[in-house]
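ERR on first pass: missing label on line 2. Operator R.T. fixed the label and resubmitted. Corrected input:
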Amino acid sequence: GAVVSQHPSWVICKSGTSVKIECRSLDFQATTMFWYRQFPKQSLMLMATSNEGSKATYEQGVEKDKFLINHASLTLSTLTVTSAHPEDSSFYICSAGLEDTQYFGPGTRLTVL
Amino acid sequence: SQKIEQNSEALNIQEGKTATLTCNYTNYSPAYLQWYRQDPGRGPVFLLLIRENEKEKRKERLKVTFDTTLKQSLFHITASQPADSATYLCALDTAAGNKLTFGGGTRVLVKP
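pass 2 clean. output:
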């Protein structure tokens, strides 16, 4: 139980394009989902908290106009990286909250050329 | 400022031995603490949650202790196996709504 999927698992795009990443809780409903990014050999950094039916809450220093989050249903949240640049290349991981725990997706490797 | 510290040096251990990892925190009063396992290129996998009123918790070969006076959690892998090789992350709840803050993680390498 408590399975979270992410799609795509990896994506390569050109600078200036937008990329959408989907996060789905497969066997439970999640009022709250979270988006993290992780650079090589570093820990997870929370980007934003996504609440179903309301606006996402962004962490300090994260541009909300660049990283658009939509939590349209209790099982789906999307992160759109707009006008991506090479410095946005990273490993993006989502999680879904269930009781006091977060269950993570497998991550999406984004490479911006 | 708030800080969560894990030993950044990799822990090399012989198969069959017990691996012990530490997680220290300052300027937090967490209601619970969690441990996750992360393999390279993958998302973290939840292992154990221990609450502030619990001293110890076990799950199969894993044991976690939580000392709120010392502000420390210890994570033990007994009878370690090469398949236990991974990075282990501790995480604390730092705000309402299940928000977590992660430590830097400790890499464990179990040698056969």
